[in-house]
Design goal:
multifunctional enzyme, amino-acid biosynthesis, Alpha-Beta Plaits, prephenate dehydratase activity, coiled coil, five-stranded mixed sheet
Length: about 350
């Protein structure tokens, strides 16, 4: 058998497999439509929750558990995420608010979590994201909460203090910054970027572009927009911004820390059921007294519950009063978690559950 004959035979097999895949995807979509019909039939006038974060997390974990390659687990899960996104859009297209403008890492996080079949709308500020979801204009919102290099996003934490919204998911996004410009490198005199991105690439800039002016702007997308049309300008931004504004990548992955990661939260109006591998976030308002933090944390140690994050923010009520933001493993419906929260409540002025949600799958 000749090379062309062998290739022709393999291509015929690929065509047959593609046909089967296409049919199975459409069969899955029909099941999704049937699910929507069942939910509507039993809704009895109540608002229908088409998107179930815990169910999607369970499906993606199963995809990764049964995957046998050669496609990597995360790549296979991303493929299924897009199939699920398309199927969900047949039930009800989700509207998702994110901290904009278009081309930011927050938009990338929204698409990573929900897939590309959702309707994403950019917002000017974190407060606007919260406001749109609270008003019901948007189904969900995506906001940054912490970066592995630069730390916590305080505006996001403070927004929870006066909000009734629930955290219903999280996204961990590896952040790769690129040095972008349409100008001859020898003529670059300034670089635009968000202040955090400038900080995350400080060593790289010091060693290669120490003499150019560093100009902070509201977002990396805005930096790319300016640099795309200004002579002598460069920007630090990601792939999405480079593609959106047609600007050349002069250097890739220039972040100082190779594992630079930003965590984003998914916020919505409904509580999320347990998925089997969850986290819970709470806000604790503590009395201004010696050992206040110890009394908050001791119950977690007694029940051997792993804390994944602790942040402190001024409460805005009185002098030297603080809110503790605590993330820990487990779901609020677990009996041991209930016991811990009961003990914490006894020694605090307020315990507010911000949400129990599936751990990031991808």
């Amino acid at each position: 058998m000749s090379e062309e004959q062998e290739l022709s035979k393999l291509r015929d097999q690929i065509d047959q497999i593609d046909q089967q895949i296409q049919q199975l995807v459409n069969d899955r979509a029909k099941c999704a439509q049937a699910v929507a019909e069942v939910k509507e039939r039993y809704a009895q006038g109540q608002q229908i929750q088409f998107y179930r974060p815990e169910r999607e997390a369970q499906v993606l974990r199963k995809v990764m558990d049964r995957n046998q390659g050669p496609i990597a687990n995360e790549d296979m899960a991303r493929l299924f995420r897009e199939v699920m996104s398309m199927c969900l859009a047949l039930e009800e297209p989700l509207k998702v608010a994110y901290l904009g403008p278009q081309g930011t890492f927050t938009q990338a996080a929204a698409l990573k979590h929900f897939g590309h079949s959702v309707l994403c709308e950019s917002q000017v500020s974190i407060s606007d994201v919260f406001r749109e979801v609270e008003a019901g204009t948007m189904n969900y919102g995506v906001v940054p909460v912490e970066n592995s290099t630069e730390g916590v996003v305080t505006h996001t934490l403070d927004s929870f203090a006066g909000s009734s919204l629930q955290i219903c998911g999280e996204v961990a996004l590896r952040i790769h910054h690129h040095f972008l410009s349409n100008t001859d490198p020898e003529k670059i005199t300034r670089v635009y970027s968000h202040p955090q991105s400038l900080a995350q690439c400080r060593q790289w800039l010091d060693s290669r572009w120490a003499k150019i002016e560093r100009i902070p702007v509201s977002s990396n997308a805005e930096a790319a927009r300016r640099a795309a049309s200004e002579e002598g300008a460069a920007a630090i931004a990601g792939d999405a911004a480079a593609e959106l504004y047609s600007i050349k990548v002069l250097a890739s992955s220039i972040e100082d820390m190779p594992d630079n990661t930003t965590r984003f939260l998914i916020i919505g109006r409904d509580e999320t059921d347990a998925s089997g591998d969850d986290k819970t976030s709470i806000m604790v308002s503590s009395r201004n007294q010696p050992g206040a933090l110890y009394h908050v944390l001791a119950p977690f140690h007694e029940k051997d519950i792993s804390l994944t994050r602790i942040e402190t923010r001024p409460s805005g009520v009185g002098t030297w009063n603080y809110n503790f933001f605590i993330d820990f493993e487990g779901h609020v419906t677990n009996e041991n978690i209930k016991e811990v929260l009961g003990k914490v409540s006894a020694s605090a002025t307020e315990v507010k559950v911000l949400g129990s949600y599936p751990k990031a799958v991808l």
